[in-house]
Amino acid sequence: MKPEQFTDPYVGKTWGDLGARVLSSGNRVAVALGYPARGLKDRLTDSLQEFLGAPVDLELSFSPPASMGLERVKHIIAVASGKGGVGKSTTAVNLALGLVHEGAKVGLLDADIYGPSQGMMLGVKDGSRPEIADEKFFKPIEAHGVQAMSMSFLTDDNTPVVWRGPMVSGALQQLLNQSLWDDLDYLIVDMPPGTGDIQLTLSQQVPVSGAVIVTTPQDIALLDARKGIEMFRKVNIPVLGVVENMSSYICPSCGEASSLFGQGGGAKIASLTDTPLLAELPLDISIREQADGGTPTVAADSTGSLAEIYREAARYMTARLWEQASSGGSQAIKINLAED
Predict the structure, then answer these.
(1) Which of 11, 99, 125, 167 could form a disulfide with 104 if both were Cys (CB 3.0 to 4.6 A apart)?
(2) Would you list the DSSP string of 82-150?
(3) Rg for the chain (alpha carbons), in Å?
């Protein structure tokens, strides 16, 4: 067995088929994956040792797949939902933070022009404004290692945005194209709920690499989630997976799990649409409190059990992106270094 014949745990293809760069010398194996996986090293080491039947000293690095993204942005991933109130923005910020902790350079664009919330979730001080470069570019505000831009950085939080569709679409394009992103591997776009002007503008005028759909187990949420999946497919944007929020509630007193909003809905919609289920998040008050407090779950405790769910989802969705970019046709570059 050779390391490039090892099957990636997320996409079911070998590293060779995915085009990973593999270098080996004795028990040392260096692999450049197409997704960030800093938190996966121990698990991969154990799996690779079992596969090869020998001890392995594994070195992981990250090389994002080529793309047709924006200038200074390799890949754009939209995080969307068919309806409001399903935890989309909380999911978006924690996926962005998860990618940062996995070793990627990440930006977060709050595309909910009418109801921007990422500034508060990232703990950006009220009244903060982006610096202006060359009299035409906004410099994103960095928080918890994420480069962020939001309409909330440009307006008063107490003043509602009362615009018609074309003005909203124009604002989105301005935020995207006039933000001076610093060589991002991924730009996570927190979409407004539904399938309206912002979604159409993003899909028609921006090179989006993929989308993630957020839902809850409720039947009505699942119905809208399916519509969201079909919308992205109609405009030829790959759906990378589904995240189910509020999947269960664990009683703090007795430890019993209750399915308050239904059970298995995310898995069902994923199966019906042939889309992976990236994660199931419990209904946990700490997720809400941490986001409201400006230190989202992954930033609050990056190695905690809840943060690991987000980090696992972040690895899974970007592995899916790598699989799509590779088209299954690339071969690994393997170099054997002779022992001295």
Answers:
(1) 99
(2) SSSSSSHHHHHHHHHHHHHHHT--EEEEE--SSS--HHHHTTPPTT---EEETTTEEEPEEETTEEEEE
(3) 20
199: tokens are 């979604």
The 8 Å CB, 24+ separation contacts for 12-15 are 13/323, 13/328, 15/332
H helix or E strand, kind and range, residue 171: helix 165-177
The C-alpha atoms of residue 320 and residue 80 are separated, in whole angstroms, by 17
Burial of 7 per CB tally in 10 Å (0-12, 13-18, 19+): middle
Chain centroid, CA 293 distance in Å: 21
Distance set, CA 185 to CA 79, 92, 99, 165, 288 (Å): 16, 16, 9, 30, 27
Residues forming a β-bridge with 30: 23, 59
Q: Where are the domains of the chain?
A: 3-63+327-336, 73-302
Cα of 231 vs its chain's centroid, Å: 19
Helix (H) / strand (E) element for 229: namely helix 219-234
Q: Which fold has domain 73-302?
A: Rossmann fold (3.40.50)
CA dihedral 266, 112, 106, 119 (to 10 degrees): -110
Least confident of 23-37, 42-56, 200-214, 236-250: 200-214
Residue 115: name the closest of 153, 174, 161, 169 by CA. Answer: 161
pLDDT, tens only, 80-131: 988 788 999 999 999 999 999 999 999 999 988 777 889 999 999 988 898 9
Per-residue pLDDT of 154-211, as tens digits, reads: 766 555 554 555 566 777 778 888 899 999 999 999 988 776 667 777 777 788 999 9
